[in-house]
């Protein structure tokens, strides 16, 4: 009946309701289905890919997954771009740097969001190590043609002003050196605000997630626009 079409297309055609197959019989229906599948695949391929490399701040730690800022980002994009969340709770910059090359090859992202460093700071690791790891990730991403957005983070003041300054300066210096957009502090308007942090004082609540996304959006929007995303249709009302 539909000789000459791949077995997968034939199976999908036969799964159509009888009334559809009656309207588009035999090879005509199979050809229409094949064209629809090809168009769908082409549209998916044209969508820019946004790869998020982060830690627990980007994995919706302690809250429902769909309320996390990365999920809210995918919702706001409304299918105009595909978001791949490769974040892992507890991830350090070293771990992210070791995983990134494979992820770049697998997903071929157009935009890479780097949200790492918080666990380096909480462990008191050398800021120079953080800088080297993030620099390598920026270079690897830019080599593939991807745009990079740095999401900066701060650490509690009890780590001392010198260490804290050296830590936060890493993000500013990298943004300058690699001409990369920067969100200076991902948790602006969230950290130390009542009701915005979970009991551990480290992870934001679900109420804080829209604020985090709004912190990211102004720097992410130009990268999306540069990749053909219609911002007027994706921006939140």
UniProtKB/TrEMBL annotation:
Annotated SGNH hydrolase-type esterase domain residues: 52-207
CDD domains: Lysophospholipase_L1_like
Keyword set includes Transcription: no
Keyword Secreted belongs to the record: no
Keywords: Signal
Highest rank taxon of the organism: Bacteria
Signal sequence segment: 1-44
Pfam family, one: Lipase_GDSL_2
Name recorded for this polypeptide: Arylesterase
Organism of this sequence: Billgrantia zhangzhouensis
Classification lineage: Bacteria, Pseudomonadati, Pseudomonadota, Gammaproteobacteria, Oceanospirillales
């Amino acid at each position: 009946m539909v000789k000459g079409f791949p077995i997968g297309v034939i199976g999908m055609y036969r799964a159509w309701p009888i009334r559809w197959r009656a309207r588009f019989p035999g090879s005509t229906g199979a050809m229409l289905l094949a064209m629809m599948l090809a168009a769908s695949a082409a549209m998916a391929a044209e969508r820019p890919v946004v790869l998020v490399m982060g830690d627990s701040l980007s994995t919706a730690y302690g809250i429902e997954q769909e309320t996390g800022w990365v999920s809210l980002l995918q919702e706001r994009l409304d299918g105009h771009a595909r978001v791949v969340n490769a974040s892992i709770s507890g991830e350090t910059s070293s771990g992210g740097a070791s995983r990134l090359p494979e992820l770049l090859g697998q997903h071929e992202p157009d935009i890479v969001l780097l949200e790492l460093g918080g666990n380096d700071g909480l462990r008191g690791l050398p800021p120079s190590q953080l800088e080297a790891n993030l620099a390598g990730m920026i270079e690897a991403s830019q080599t593939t043609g991807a745009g990079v957005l740095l999401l900066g983070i701060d650490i509690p003041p009890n780590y001392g002003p010198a260490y804290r300054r050296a830590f936060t300066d890493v993000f500013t210096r990298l943004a300058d050196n690699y001409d990369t957009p920067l969100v200076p502090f991902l948790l602006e308007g969230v950290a130390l605000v009542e009701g915005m942090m979970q009991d551990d004082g480290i992870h934001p609540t679900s109420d804080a997630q829209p604020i985090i996304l709004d912190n990211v959006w102004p720097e992410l929007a130009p990268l999306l626009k540069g990749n053909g995303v219609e911002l007027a249709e994706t921006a939140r009302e």
